[in-house]
Known about the structure:
By secondary structure, the chain is of the alpha+beta class.
Amino acid sequence: MTQPVPICIRPELSADVAQVRAVVEAAFSASAFGHHGEADLIERLRAGCSEILSLAADYEGRLVGHVLFSPVSLHLAGDCDSPICTGMGLGPLAVLPAQQRRGIGSRLVEEGLDLLRQRGCPFACVLGDPAFYGRFGFQPAAPLGILCEFGGAENGAFQIIYMTDEAPGLSSRLAKYRPEFSDLGHEPRP
């Protein structure tokens, strides 16, 4: 890891939209995952969901990172019409390739989770690298009886963190992301 950079994590502003798209496209084009429409997904979530949490990482007046949290509902297995609990899903998370490994992504995740705790969010989930997200308290969800509509149980990639002192009774549940994820025909990307 190279030297951390002094950054400001702040809510995304309407003036940031073009810069967010550029950061997300650059980050995912350079990643092992490749580019799968993450920037389009963010725009669709902005337009269709008022409950998102969108944070930007600003370095010397330039946007260098972005994270989005959007609602995820938990359903009893076999009953996908009536959610029993709603939390937030983390993703996409993006940092400009030249600024990666400097703690920017970690700061975005930490500050996003802190804001969600302050808002009383019961849980957050992510479909991503267990080694990275485990540092923030995420744990594989499948052993807890929680599966994701997009998979991720077999390799521990679908993870959850409880945001309250007590883990709510969430076992035997299916996590469903916003329809914008399915409409784009791909899984949520970290």
